[in-house]
Amino acid sequence: QVQLAESGGGSVQTGGSLRLSCAASGSIGNINVMGWYRQAPGKQREMVATLTSGGNTNYADSVKGRFTISRDNAKNTVYLQMNSLKPEDTAVYYCKVITWRMYWGQGTQVTVSS
Asked: For the segment 10-63, what is each residue's pLDDT rounded down to a tens digit?
């Protein structure tokens, strides 16, 4: 079993920055993909950024150039640096980890006010 502990959410004004963290613990094994997803009220959950074990990244078009995903393998932690935040980035952000199965974090709220 894998546990994911997310942190770093909060409230900021437009143009501000936040860094989300997601630490994986437990019977982790080999992590293939770590990523961040978000879900705004009334909308479907969407991919924000993913990072494979090989170092390949993928970003949603809406966050390219503003968000950066990174990983500390020694700590089994994935980060999402979010800069130039916009009100439309407001959502609950979820961490996802794929080993031989998929795990989701509990979510952390990010609120961007104009």
From this structure: 999 999 999 999 999 988 888 899 999 999 999 999 999 999 999 999 999 999
Of the pLDDT bands very low, low, confident and very high (cuts 50, 70, 90), residue 91 is very high
Q: How far apart are CA 33 and CA 17, in angstroms?
A: 24
The residue type found at 101 is R
Q: Determine how β-strand 108-113 pairs with β-strand 10-13.
A: parallel
